[in-house]
Amino acid sequence: MTQNVDAAGDARSAPDVGAVVDDLADVTRRIIDLRASTDGLDRDDVSRLMRAVHALERAGQALALDLTRRASRTRPDRADASTSTSGWLSRQTGASRQEAGRDARLAEDLPDVAPQTHRDLADPDLSKEKAEVVAAAMRRVHGRLSPDERERVESDLLAKARRYDVVTLRRAAKRVLEAIDRESADREESATLEREERAARRRAAVWLRPPDGDGMVNGGFRLPELEAEMLRTALEARTAPRSPVVAGGAAGAVGAAGADGAAGADGAAGGTAGSVGASTSTSDRDARDYPQRLGAALCDLVRVFRDERQHGGTTATVVVTTDLETLRGEIERAGTTSAGSRVSAREVRRIACDARIIPAVLGSRGQVLDLGRSQRLFSAAQRTALALRDGGCAFPGCDRPSSWCEAHHRTPWSQGGSTDLEDGVLLCGHHHRVIHAGEWQVRLARDGLPEFLPPARIDPRRRPRRNDRWRPVTHPAAARSGTHRAA
């Protein structure tokens, strides 16, 4: 160890950098050597190594930010004629000047605006991207809160950062004040969403190029999030496995998706779009990749403008969760769509009359949802309620939307199970088969949300798991339980 004296005159112990660099070089060589033998690894080895490499990557990111912050004080850029710390960092790492600048700002700000996040940044559940979200949120409220309030707010956001992916964390960060003042968080989030919605409507655009001479027209669009979700829902209703549309029903022929619904690399729609009332052969269905099936579905929508309800009656419907007070204008609380997008209170009130968007609080003509054993299949109203509760496939880690899912009876109907909401869970075709294989078990927890018990070979303690991918960050049941996390 050596003694360094910083600009303030403080003597601090420094590590033996030469030895550390040698150790890191040795680790790097071992990783490079391992790449040549990955084909011989079994699945347990792959899992162990993936966790280890992931932890190493996170620790490396944290150290790199600390070194960047130190570089802004020791100014190594002056030694190699760089114009700034971010310029030096770009030359050192190969990152763009823009990315290096973001890293330099984050390294400088994080210890001050989000000290807990800076302290724990090497945690495998965190990342530089998540730290940027936390830091930006804390910057917005830093001057408005006392030190104690800042600590509570950051602690709450840091817990969410460990639980959620980056996209969900960004939504949660819009409610950064929720830990100390729910009403203020409601107002601030709704106002932010309203500004974003106005800007998105101004920026919405469609562009179509001239015909290319081969019977095709290329183009694109930019849509607000809610309208894009409505379009995606309508298209997925026509491309979902086992959909009546895919099978060649009256809505038009669209190629069938495989169980995994893999998207092709080429985003262009190709092939024949199919015609209304036509059927598609198996070879045609198998030949189309996912973007081409979406293209065919879009052609059908252009041809047939009508409000259809396919695949259980819910896939062309967007559900927005809200409350009576918001609809009455008594409070400004944002709503949540069935895919997890947040919608301002003003927009919730505007769309309440849209037949294709159902405010969950209204109940859609008061249909009876609990049908007991009077019928075997779940009704359209029940599927809407299941889609609202589960979002998509409820199995931990699955990303299949509700339009690709089937309503599973937790207790088989043939064994006395009821066709009630409490007995239903949305599952994609693959995970429906997994559950019926018998190793995994599904149940409803006390908060009314589905959770899954893995087989003992995966977790000897069989601890319950949930899918947080579809769960709104302020879902009432989730807020009460506070225990679920994505697998």
UniProtKB/TrEMBL annotation:
Biased composition (Polar residues): 81-96
InterPro entries given in the database record: DUF222 (IPR003870), HNH (IPR002711), HNH_nuc (IPR003615)
Keywords from the UniProt entry: Endonuclease, Hydrolase, Nuclease
A molecular function (GO) term: nucleic acid binding
Region (Disordered) residue spans: 67-109, 263-289, 455-487
CDD domains assigned: HNHc (cd00085)
Compositional bias annotation for Basic and acidic residues: 99-108
Pfam families given in the database record: DUF222 (PF02720), HNH (PF01844)
SMART domains given in the database record: HNHc
Domain HNH nuclease: 381-433
Protein family membership: Belongs to the Rv1128c/1148c/1588c/1702c/1945/3466 family.
The name this protein goes by in its record: HNH endonuclease
Organism in which the protein naturally occurs: Mumia flava
